Amino acid sequence: MTWLVALGGVELFRFLVQHIVYRRANRLQKEATALREQVLTQEVAQKLKRSQTDFLEDRLKDRDRQIDQLYRQLRKEQTARFELQQALHEAIQGKTLLEFKRCEVFPCSRREPPLKE
């Protein structure tokens, strides 16, 4: 009896009885707690992935807008260059035509071959 008092008395006896009687319930409670923590961890991970996905989608949209703006600017520059090239071509044609029409013979009515207008 003294060794029972030395080891904790009635409380030790009560602990042993509760441990034996409620060991299945305690195990299930620990498993439920572990499962709850695992679910919470998964939810946090999903939220983090969603936030990262949203951030990357926003970045991709911004880059798409920048690329679209650069393409608009490129097309504008290409159009301006094409118009300038067309104007230069017309000027060269006009110069060639004027050189062809230039009269080297005096008076111009005797030009060989005569120009038809």
Describe this structure in words.
- There is one protein chain.
- This protein is mainly α and 117 residues long.
- The chain has two helices and no strands.
- It has helices spanning 2-7, 10-101.
- The model has no long low-confidence stretch (mean pLDDT 84).
How is the secondary structure organized here?
Blueprint: H1 2-7, H2 10-101
Q: Give the C-alpha Rg.
A: 48 Å
Tell me the number of strands.
0
Q: Sum up the overall morphology in one term.
A: rod-shaped
The oligomerization state is: single chain
Q: What value does the average pLDDT take?
A: 84
Tally the helices.
2
Strand content: under 5%
Main β-sheet description: none
Low-confidence stretches: none
Structure class: mainly alpha
For the termini, the CA-CA separation is 140 Å
Structural domains: how many: 1
- How are helices and strands ordered from N to C? HH
In short:
With 117 residues, this protein is an all-alpha fold. The chain has helices at 2-7, 10-101.
Entry keywords:
117 residues, mainly alpha, 0% strand
